[in-house]
Design a protein that fits this description.
CATH class of the largest domain: Alpha Beta
CATH architecture of the largest domain: Alpha-Beta Barrel
Order of helices and strands: HHHHHEHHHEEHEHEHEEEEEHHH
Helix content: 25-40%
Strand order of the largest sheet: 1-4-5-6-10-9-8-7
Number of domains: 3
Structural class: alpha/beta
Largest sheet: 8 strands, mixed, barrel
Number of strands: 10
CATH superfamily of the largest domain: Aconitase, domain 4
Radius of gyration: 29 Å
CATH topology of the largest domain: Aconitase, domain 4
Distance between the termini: 66 Å
């Protein structure tokens, strides 16, 4: 048995006392300030604060730490936001913030071409926001459905639809003072908990991410960077809700009184269409957080569906209108069913009972 040969605590202590001696540490570390010639050759500027080198391609002062205020700015509604990326399921932190080689034709690669002798990797340059922000959503395998047929960090700047890198589009939106959102599927942010997946998202100007579900650590990192992580209602996706990413988004009800489980309203507006979705319940894991993930429910385009049915009823096409109810889900179907009942009572019940609720 292992217990028969395993040493006791006293036996281990006796060996340590006999073999681990103070002079070992004195010999190894007693002359530490003089042993490393390369380290000692580094020029010092002196002073209590680090003297940032604006020409360094490895480390820069993080912009989100500049001009910090003692008082936190008030939370405000998000209005007129555009979608920067329309993503599918299992978008990982490596998709959001890659750590591998820097492609020469990527925004980060182009930035480094005239500034560094070699590109090295994203991981080695994680202290430089100028590289890491350009690398956000720049994984060569990421697919942005807002720019169909492309692979890599490509998007379309709206409303004109010009294709460009996600970084270039984000900077153009910043110049236009347009806030940004990201729409995603399930398991958003899975993988290693890379802080730059949240930092880069924030520095691109993204104010909110709306996804089907999250990896909890990345969700928390978004909250800590001031990016609002929202969730669709269980079972709903941007695909099932008919969102294309070309809409403009408004998130109302955001203020300093924001609380866990609070209901808010998000409105997605496309050309000649007005679509609204509202929260069902907030994620209970977010209790106590300043900004909270919400679960959202998308209301069917009731006015459009009821309008079509009402028009058919008014033109005498009552049977066709009644059959149309089979394809319209609540609340459109519910409201239209009431219209059918009204017309039936007013027109000698000529409209047959064809409604089947879902």
């Amino acid at each position: 048995m292992l217990a028969d040969i395993w040493p006791t605590h006293e036996e281990v202590k006796n060996v340590v006392d006999a073999c681990v001696l103070p002079e070992m540490f004195q010999k190894q570390y007693g002359n530490v300030w003089k042993q490393n010639e390369k380290w000692n050759a580094i020029e010092l500027t002196g002073g209590e604060l680090y003297d940032w080198n604006d020409q360094s391609t490895y480390i820069q002062e993080p912009p989100f730490l500049l001009d910090l205020k003692r008082e936190v700015d008030p939370i405000r509604p998000i209005t007129g936001a555009r979608c920067l990326a329309l993503l599918g399921d299992s978008t990982t932190t490596d998709h959001i913030s890659p750590a591998g080689a820097i492609a020469s034709d990527s925004p980060a690669g182009k930035f480094l071409q005239n500034a560094a002798r070699d590109f090295n990797s994203y991981g080695s340059r994680r202290g430089n926001d100028r590289v890491m922000t350009r690398g956000t959503f720049a994984n060569i395998r990421i697919r942005n459905r807002l720019a169909p047929g492309t692979e890599g960090g490509v998007t379309r700047h709206l409303p004109e639809g010009e294709a460009m890198s996600i970084y270039d589009a984000a900077m153009k939106y910043k110049e236009e003072e347009v806030p940004l959102v990201v729409l995603a599927g399930a398991e958003y942010g899975t993988g290693s908990s890379r802080d730059w997946a949240a930092k880069g998202t924030f520095l691109l100007g993204v104010k909110a991410v709306i996804a089907a579900s999250y990896e909890r650590i990345h969700r928390s990192n978004l909250v800590m960077m001031g990016v609002l992580p929202l969730e669709f209602e269980a079972g709903a996706t941007w695909q099932s809700l008919g969102l294309t990413g070309e809409e403009t988004f408004e998130i109302n009800g955001l203020d300093d009184d924001l609380k866990p489980l609070q209901k808010l309203t998000v409105t997605a507006t496309a050309a000649e269409k007005h679509q609204r979705f509202f929260d069902d319940r907030a994620d209970r894991h977010a209790r106590g957080a300043r900004l909270l993930p919400q679960r959202w429910h998308f209301a069917n385009r009731t006015a459009e569906a009821v309008g079509r049915i009402t028009e058919q009823l008014q033109t005498g096409k009552r049977i066709e209108a009644s059959k149309k109810l089979k394809t319209e889900g609540p609340p459109a179907g519910t409201i239209a069913k009431e219209l059918i009942a009204q017309f039936r009572s007013q027109n000698d019940a000529v409209v047959p009972h064809c409604y089947h609720g879902r």
